[in-house]
Amino acid sequence: LPDIAYVNGRFCPIEQAVVSIEDRGLQFGDSVYEVMRAYAGQIFALGQHLDRFTRSSRLIHLNADDFLAELPGLLEEALRQSTYGDAILYVQLTRGAAQRSHSIPADILPTRIITVRPMEDSYAAEQAEGVSAVGLQDIRWAHCDIKSTNLLAGVLLKYEARQAGAFEAILFNERGELTEGASSNVFVVIDGVLRTPELSERILAGVTRLRLLELARQDGIPVRSGVLSREDMAGADEVFVASTSIEVIPVVRFDGKPIGSGQPGPITRRLHELYREMARRPAGD
Ligand SMILES: Cc1ncc(COP(=O)(O)O)c(C=O)c1O
Question: Which listed residue (147, 211, 253, 272) is catalytic?
Fold first, then answer.
C-alpha cells in the first residue's frame, strides 16, 4: 500500500512528493507543523490540533486561513486514500519558495504538505516495560510553544540521549527547572499527586498532556502543575513521557538510577489505559 502525500493541491505516493530546493521550510525551518493520530480511521483530537496549528501559524506571521479551511477535508481524503485505520498524519505549512533572503518576501505562496503513514503498536515494548531517560540542559530557543520545524536542538538532544542509551532527553532550563522532553511532555508522580510543568513559552502545549490532565481529574487523581527540579524527578515515585506518537511511556530509570520501584507505576498505567480507551472510542474527540 502506498504511503500517501499531499503537496499543494495534489495527492500522490510519498516517494513522488517534492518541494522546491528554495523552500523556506528547507532553508530556514520557516514553517509550522502538526502530528496527529488516527485510531480505527478516526482522527483523534482533531480540533485541538487545528487550534494549535492556527496559533503556531499566527505566531510566525504566516497566513494559514486558506489551508485551514480545507485541512479537515484533505486529512480525511489522505486517510481514505491510504486505507490505514491506525495512522500518523503529518501536516506542514511552510512560508513557501523564494530566492533566499532572511526577510519575508511579500508575495509568496505557502507550501502545504500532508503525509500519512501507518501506525501499528510501534511502542508496545517501551509502553509495557518502561524506558530510561537522561537529564540534559534545554538548549532550545525561547518559543517552544510554537510548533515549528526549527528542530535542530531537539534532534541534537535526542542524539545525545540515544548515545547514552536512553529513550528520551528530559530537559532542564538555566534555573534547573524541568521543561519537557525533546519530543514529549513530562509527568511526575510524587506522593500520589500527578505533577507537570505549567504551560509557558518554553514548552509545547501537548494535546496528549491536556487530555491526560483531564482524564486524571475525572478519575480523582490529584493534579498540580508547577516547577519541578532535577531532584524532584530523581526522587519521584513515577515518571512518564507523553505525546501523540508514543501515548504514554513510563520512565523507569533517570540518569542511570531507578525511578521509584524501577517498574512502571500504577498511576502511569491507569492513565495510559484511560487514554487508550478514550482515543479508541468512536468520536473520542
Ligand atoms: C517538544 C515536544 N513537546 C511535547 C510534545 C507532545 O505534543 P502532543 O501531545 O501534542 O503530540 C511533542 C510532540 O511531538 C514535542 O515535540
Answer: 147
Question: What does 137-183 look like in DSSP terms, one character per residue?
Answer: E--S-S-TTS-BS--HHHHHHHHHHHHTT-SEEEEE-TTSBEEEETT
pLDDT confidence of residue 46 = 98
* 196 Cβ closer than 6 Å to some ligand 1 atom: no
DSSP for residue 44: T
Overall pTM surpassing 0.90 (yes/no): yes
Residue whose C-alpha cell reads 498505567 in the numeric block: 269
Supply 247's cell numbers: 501515548
Residue numbers in the chain where pLDDT is lower than 50: none
Tell me which residue of 45, 92, 41, 31 sits closest to 67, measured CA to CA.
92
pLDDT of 44 reads: 97
Strands 247-254 and 131-137: parallel
**Mean of the per-residue pLDDT values of the chain:** 97
